[in-house]
Specification:
Layout (H helix, E strand, L loop, with lengths): L22 E3 L5 H11 L16 H4 L8 E2 L4 E5 L2 H14 L44 E6 L2 E6 L1 H10 L3 H11 L8 H7 L4 H15 L9 H6 L1 H7 L2 H13 L21 E9 L6 E5 L3 E2 L4 H6 L4 E7 L4 H6 L1 H8 L3 E3 L2 E9 L2 E11 L7 E3 L7 H8 L10 H6 L9 E5 L5 E3 L15 E4 L1 H10 L8 E6 L2 E7 L11 E3 L15 H4 E7 L4 E6 L1 H9 L4 H20 L11 H15 L2 H9 L45 H11 L7 H20 L3 E13 L9 E3 L1 E7 L5 E4 L2 E6 L9 E6 L11 E4 L7 H4 L9 E5 L2 H4 L20 E3 L4 H7 L7 H9 L8 H16 L4 H14 L1 H4 L1 E3 L1 H11 L5 H6 L22 H23 L11 H14 L6 H19 L5 H4 L4 H16 L17 H20 L13 H18 L7 H4 L9
Parallel strand pairs: 5-10, 6-9, 15-19, 16-18, 22-28, 23-27
Antiparallel strand pairs: 1-3, 2-3, 4-5, 6-7, 6-8, 9-12, 10-11, 11-12, 12-13, 14-20, 16-19, 17-18, 17-20, 21-22, 22-29, 23-28, 24-25, 26-27, 26-29, 30-31
Helix pairs in contact: 4-6, 5-7, 19-20, 19-23, 19-33, 20-22, 22-23, 22-39, 23-33, 28-29, 34-35, 34-38, 35-38, 38-39
């Protein structure tokens, strides 16, 4: 493109997405200067990282939003409303209504220049560092606030290269992410070399280049490392998935939606790549800083499937734990997120906030590249923010909704879901809600689905059985679809939607495939039998008549049931089965108690875990996004070290050693790991005061639409045998039961009802049905629940049920003066539109004010939950003050939909009364690092009777400590000696014998063994100190151990690899002997010269060579089995008898 092509006397912007029409004018007298600077900045650079690679960094940092004057030394650049555009817009509105969206264009426009007086550059926010033109500008502009928008990361020069050579989006994102680390050798030639490649290939090249620079440890690029961790990378690295998305969407824009009925065996769907960043506020700083995180595979949503994963950017907001800063900066945050955010030239706009995470949408706008600043429309095939709103929740059809409720509906498109079958519009039917004579909606949130629909969901989601109910989103509807009673397996799929399920209204049914696809959130199958009582449930049960001694008895039983199966191997051999059978049973119990199978599924299938009610194990010391800036090298939490073979979790480690043939009676390492596993679980039960109730179930609740159940009656039939009231197995629960759900803050939140058998509902299993008769919805008594996917706890344990007495129902009604504590924003959508009509400059910012309102209210939920706990402790669970705070908590929780928030006066008074004081049991149940020793931190009990949790924590500590002592004794070696394993020492001892045999090969072998010894000794000396090491977050610990095991496995080199060992060694033999010596050396170092076996050995040998040591052991035990890792992860051990 010649320079003159940028200059034209007639320049106009057409529609630019979410901004009004605009025009640029630049001084004519400055053309020569501007051409000269443009020529310099657009010249490709082949210089090194220490030399200038870009043109003018400030070509973006100077950038101003349209309609805001911006000036430079030679000329000023300002945006003015185009007369023609203005009149066109006015005409359009008068003839087509306020919701008419102007036709967007992909035409490239040329600026016109007019003379203006010189002036300054635009000001950046305080604390922003900007390089001068004469300085090195080979870095991206990051976290800079210009007048009008926020630069996440952008470089004009790099963006020209990205666009010219078609660098894939994922590679652009990674380069921008790494720019924060000042990675500056990705020059013009390199960018050109990755152009046109897939995301996976381009990012592999970036990792290799950066590793070669020495910025990060390059060891991970070794073939052994990459191959070993392939399973972990496949499960977490998103680039192959992003490539598949790009390829499919290039052929069909709806290809990522899934749900194609013509290909039942093809269940792929898109939207599973998560792009995110963290915005931090550092105390004492002047700016918010955004750090991009490495993308990962994660759950899919409707919006990411429809528009592609890369169109959504999640920004998590962190205040480094200082809550006061969060409240003080809330309004500032809202104003900040109302700005366009720029990442690699693309514009992202905020459209939703949930739990201090702001969701941003990539619009059809971008920074003009190669010219002076401006945000322009680039691609009319993509949509702006206004079009997203119209697609998901059309404003014109929802004008009478409150603005807060309209804003909350956007969350429906971001629910974690899996696409099910797609329905025809005519098969999405309507059915009326059942309403009581007093106006209570008895079926709120629950619809129906025929057998054909549920069968299709089973097939498409590859479920083991047809679900009786599914929690779904479909178009603007949300709720639970329950199997239609007395239905037959028809060929046509149909569902029935109730008015209470409809959250987004349309004037006519949408034919969009995304709107006709059933988005499945969770399915009802194999409900959890044997639940754990939460603290709030325990407090409620105690208040309503359950004595302290009952809780103590159940707690002691819980500890015993936890420990007994894991210590059965230590019993007298004459009273038990064979030692091998005991080890098999131990393996099975560890797998079950540690939920190992579910955790493996959660690691391998991150996008479908929630569907099956599976959540990945998390480390409580670790932040959600603790990965920081790494090149994908950092480990994912709880994955095994595939180099050494050592698993990450304690439970899987115990199982790994057991299946190799180790016995806790003779193996100190297995005994130690087992002791740590059992005692860690006991400690968790003690700290959290866990009480397990075997005769209970946690399942979806649904209304009885047959009308057979009477008021106060419920029905539940399990698909699997469950413990009956008298101890025998059954499938249908009968008799008095307790029903409750979390949160449980009111005495009436648990109800004692009657479970009955109902023949009309016998075909539907694993769902708790509640009567639709009476004056009030049954679920409403359970903490204000409904049937759109709520789950409840049903208990039929006589020890809890018999003494329980239902609380007075006045607790189920809010205080008469509750509204006086709130200020309610009842502004309607129509009010917002009237104040800022569509197409006006303020339209998007006004909507964003509503959409981001949660940022100003996010701390209130946790705060009022804590206030309620304090009031319940000090004044009593049934006090009027505790009741008020419970209802305030509920209303604040729903504040995003209702627009209600506590008044400033209320918050001030409640903070003065409750803030800074916490019940003693709450402090004790927290981790030690968070416990305060300040006496004023404890709330003082102001009622005579003791509080149930204070009593239970004392009893839990007593019982747990006794069990832990017993476990320690069981796992101690006999006669105080720490046994050494002859099997593990044998490979090294045999080689030593050969080296001392005096044969011609002995000298060479002795030299080889000395080489192995030096290598192992050098690694051993660098072993991390255990005390400091175990306090680190899990991913950091894993990375340290993986680096250590990689160094251990990397030497000494074989002869064929140019190493110092003789030609006789193979890799398998080296691995065995090296591992054996590591074990021997550790034993020798740790044994006291005068008191043999007085010190326990370290974990070093197994940390660096667990697979080799287990292989040695399995061969020694005999009949070892060869099993690939991916097969082992999928198998379950089931004893033959």
């Amino acid at each position: 493109m010649s320079d003159n092509e940028f200059f034209d006397d007639d320049f106009d912007y057409a529609s630019i997405g979410d901004l009004p029409h605009a025009r640029i004018s630049v001084g004519k007298s400055s053309q020569d200067d501007y051409k000269r600077s443009l020529r310099m900045s657009s010249t490709p650079s082949f210089l090194s990282s220490d030399e200038t690679m870009m043109g003018d960094l400030m070509s973006e940092a100077d950038t101003e939003m349209p309609f805001t004057p911006a000036k430079s030394k030679a000329a000023s650049y300002h945006f003015t409303q185009s007369p023609s555009s203005s009149s066109s817009s006015s005409s359009s509105q008068s003839t087509q209504g306020p919701f008419h969206t102007p036709v967007q264009t992909n035409r490239k426009h040329k600026p016109t220049f007019t003379a203006e007086s010189p002036s300054k550059r635009p000001k950046l926010s305080p604390g922003t560092s900007v390089k001068n033109r004469d300085e090195d500008t080979s870095v991206f502009a990051t976290s800079q606030q210009c007048n009008g928008y926020f630069i996440l990361s952008h470089s004009s020069q790099y963006q020209q290269w990205f666009d010219k050579y078609k660098v894939p989006h994922g590679a652009q994102f990674e380069i921008a992410r790494l720019s924060a680390e000042k990675v500056r050798s990705l020059d013009y030639l390199f960018i050109k070399s990755i152009g046109g490649k897939s995301n996976a290939d381009a990012i592999r090249m970036i990792e290799q280049r950066v590793a070669a620079m020495g910025v990060f440890d390059g060891e991970h690029e070794k073939n052994q490392y990459q191959k070993a961790f392939k399973a972990e990378h496949v499960a977490t690295r998103p680039w192959a998935e992003q490539d598949k998305e790009d390829e499919r969407m290039a052929e069909d824009t709806d290809a990522c939606l899934g749900g194609y009925q013509e290909s039942p065996g093809h269940n792929w769907y898109g939207g599973k790549v998560v792009y995110r960043g963290k915005m931090r506020y550092i105390n004492g700083g002047a700016n918010f800083k955004v750090e991009l995180d490495k993308p990962e595979l994660g759950p899919s949503t409707r919006i990411t499937r429809k528009f592609g994963s890369k169109r959504i950017l999640r920004i998590n907001i962190s205040f480094d734990g200082v809550q006061s800063h969060r409240r003080a900066r809330a309004e500032e945050l809202v104003e900040l997120f109302k700005k366009p955010f720029v990442l690699n030239g693309r514009v992202f706009r905020a459209f939703l906030e949930r739990d201090m995470t702001v969701f941003m949408f990539m619009t059809n706008e971008r920074l003009a590249n190669g010219t002076r600043p401006g945000i322009v429309v680039e691609d009319d095939l993509q949509m702006g923010l206004t079009e997203l709103f119209e697609w998901h929740n059309p404003i014109r059809e929802n004008m009478n909704q409150t603005a807060a409720k309209w804003a909350s509906r956007l969350a429906l498109g971001l629910s974690t879901s899996i696409p099910g079958p797609m329905l025809e519009v005519e098969n999405i039917l309507q059915v009326a809600d059942i309403v009581s004579p007093k106006g209570s909606d008895m079926t709120d949130g629950a619809g129906l689905a025929n057998l054909a629909t549920l069968s299709a969901i089973q097939t498409q989601l590859n479920l083991s059985a047809m679900p009786p109910a599914v929690q779904v989103r479909i178009d603007g509807n949300k709720g639970l679809l329950v199997r239609k009673s007395s239905d037959t397996l028809e060929d046509t799929m149909k569902i029935w939607i109730r008015p209470s399920m409809t959250k987004v209204k349309r004037s006519y049914p949408s034919n969009d495939r995304a709107h006709r696809t059933i988005d499945v959130l969770r399915v009802a199958h194999n409900p959890r039998v044997g639940a754990t009582l939460s603290v709030e449930i325990i407090i409620n049960l105690s208040h309503n008549g359950v004595p302290l001694e009952v809780f103590k008895e159940l707690m002691e039983l819980s500890f015993q049931e936890l420990k007994a199966p894991l210590t059965a191997w230590a019993k007298d051999p004459e009273t038990t089965c064979s030692p091998q059978d005991e080890l098999v049973k131990l393996w099975e119990e560890v797998c079950k108690k540690g939920s190992v199978g579910r955790q493996r599924v959660a690691r391998h299938k991150v996008s479908t875990a929630r569907l099956h009610g599976i959540e990945a194990k998390e480390d409580e010391d670790m932040e959600e996004d603790e990965d920081g800036v790494h090149l994908g090298k950092g480990s994912s939490p709880w994955w095994a070290d595939e180099i050494s073979g050592q698993p990450s979790t304690l439970e899987e480690t115990v199982m790994y050693y057991l299946q190799a043939g180790f016995d806790p009676r003779t193996s100190w390492i297995l005994a130690e790991k087992l002791k740590s596993t059992i005692n860690a679980t006991i400690e968790t039960h003690k700290r959290k005061c866990k009480i397990n109730v075997g005769k209970s179930v946690y399942a979806f609740i649904a209304p009885d639409t047959t009308g057979r159940l009477k008021p106060g009656e419920v029905f539940f039939q399990s698909s699997q045998p469950i413990p009956g009231r008298e101890g025998y197995e059954c499938s249908v629960v009968k008799g008095p039961v307790l029903l409750g759900r979390n949160p449980c803050k009111l005495p009436s939140d648990i109800q004692k009802w009657q479970a009955v058998d109902c023949f009309a509902l016998r075909d539907i299993k694993d769902v708790i049905f509640i009567s639709t008769q009476g004056s009030r919805r049954g679920a409403d008594y359970l903490a204000g629940g409904d049937y759109d996917g709520d789950k409840a706890l049903m208990i039929w344990e006589n020890l809890l049920v018999d003494p329980f007495v239902n609380a007075d129902l006045h607790f189920a009604d809010p205080p008469e003066d509750l509204e006086s504590y709130f200020q309610t924003e009842n502004e309607l959508v129509s009010d917002v539109v009237r104040r800022a009509p569509p197409g006006s400059e303020n339209y998007i910012p006004e909507l964003q004010t509503v959409l981001l309102n949660g940022l100003t209210n996010s701390t209130m939920v946790g705060m009022y939950s804590a206030f309620h706990a304090t009031a319940s402790y000090e004044l009593g669970y049934g006090s009027s003050e505790a009741k008020r705070l419970a209802y305030m908590f509920v209303d604040i929780l729903d504040g995003a939909k209702t627009g209600k928030r506590p008044s400033e006066r209320t918050v001030k008074n409640d903070c003065a009364r409750y803030n800074g004081r916490r019940p003693r049991y709450v402090v004790k149940m927290e981790k030690a690092s968070e416990v305060t020793n300040t006496r004023s931190a404890y709330a003082e009990r102001q009622v005579s009777e003791p509080f149930i949790m204070d009593e239970l924590l004392v009893h839990a500590a007593k019982v747990a400590d006794a069990h832990k002592e017993e476990v320690i004794k069981l796992c101690q070696p006999k006669q105080g000696a720490m046994p050494r394993d002859d099997d593990l020492e044998r490979p090294w001892r045999e080689k030593l014998e050969g080296a001392n045999a005096g044969t011609p090969e002995s000298a060479s072998l002795k030299k080889d063994l000395e080489c192995i010894k030096r290598h192992v000794d050098s690694i051993y000396e660098k072993t991390p100190i255990t005390g400091v090491f175990t306090n680190k977050p899990i991913s950091e610990r894993q990375d340290i151990l993986r680096r250590q095991s990689l160094k251990f496995m990397s030497g000494p080199k074989l002869w064929k690899d140019g190493g110092e060992l003789s030609v006789h060694w193979s890799m398998d033999e080296l691995s065995r002997v090296r591992a054996s010596y590591a074990y021997v050396h550790d034993c020798q170092v740790q044994v006291d010269a005068y008191k043999p076996y007085s010190k326990r050995f370290t974990r070093f040998p197994f940390d660096v060579a667990a697979r080799a040591l287990c292989d040695i052991k399995a061969k020694a035990v005999g009949r070892e089995t060869h099993l690939a890792g991916f097969m082992a992860d999928c198998l379950k051990l089931k004893p033959l008898s």
